[in-house]
Each structure stands twice: as structure tokens, then as C-alpha cells.
Amino acid sequence: MAAPTPFFKTIAKSFRDVPTQPGVDTVQFCDAAEGLVKIFDLFGNPAFGVVQSDLTGNIAKVRARLASHPAQSGTLEDLVSAEKVEKKKTATEGLMWLLRGLKFTAIGLRRSQQNPSEELSVSFQKAYEGSLRPYHGMLIRPLFSLAMNACPYRATFYPKLGEPEAEVQKELDEWLTGLEKIVAQMEKFYKDGGHGKI
């Protein structure tokens, strides 16, 4: 039986390859974010549907703004700035929630990578506490807690990313580094411009 295609060969764009200067390229960022949503398919549990639908819905808001105002939406920064002038916030808030979800995922996977004896459920529970939890109300928190408890075992998840392991870990590291860079850049942009807190 042929080995499955490594995960990072199945996605359209790695965060590693998304241009971030003079701003974060909107189209390529959305492509990379859609790839991230697919990583939760490897978790193999429907509890993660809530995470995936949240991310997908917010990507759609950014793409809708890009489609309606392409000239003002080449970068994420341009998109947010143009909406502010129009006194609109649909894509700005969607992007803010998307970035929070991406940050949560980045923290969970990075923590898991750095702590090889820690199960994913622990890594993602800690990631949730350090990212999304403060912004979630009492109705949403239990749904996310349920998802965190539904994380697969490391021994089940990591082989699904593909082989050879050393190559896949290198890809994961570069993907996460690119993602962390974008989140940090946009966090600063949102904070400095008074667009909200990520």
C-alpha cells in the first residue's frame, strides 16, 4: 500500500511562503489559512468541526471583502485600513477572529513540537487558555473544551502528517514560523491602529 501524501504537499500555500512586506498578501494568506483548516481533518474527530467552521467563516469574510474591493485589499493591512475609512468592520472583525484562531493553532502545535512527551490535548488546552478563551463567552467555552479533550494521541496524529518524519518536522517548523510571524505582525498592526486586540 502506498504511503499517504505528506500533509504539507497537499496544501495550496505554506505560511512560510506568504509575502509579508510591504504587508501580508491577502490572497496568499487566505490560501494558507484554508490549508490550516485542513490540518484539523487529521485530528479525526467531529468535535473539531466548531473550530473549522469558525476559521472557515472568517476566511470567507476576508475573501468577500477582497472580491468586492480588490484594489484596496491587496494586503491585510490595506484591507483593514480601507474598511476603517468606510466605517465598516465586517472583514476587520472576521480577520481579527481568524488571527485569534490561527494563533491558537500555532501555539498548540508549537507547544506540542517543543514538548515531545506532552499529549496534544494538553498542548491545545494550554493554547486555548493563552489565546481564544478570554474572548469566548460561557456558551462557546464548553464546545472548545470538548474539542480539546477530543485531540488525538501524538502517536496517532504525527504519522498522519507524513513521512519521512525529519522532513515533515522541518516543514511543520517552517510553516509554524511563517504563521507566527504573520500573527505577530498583524497583532502589532491591530494594536497600533486601534482595530482591536488579537
TrEMBL record:
It comes from Naganishia adeliensis. This is Uncharacterized protein. It comes from the Eukaryota. The lineage of its organism: Eukaryota, Fungi, Dikarya, Basidiomycota, Agaricomycotina.
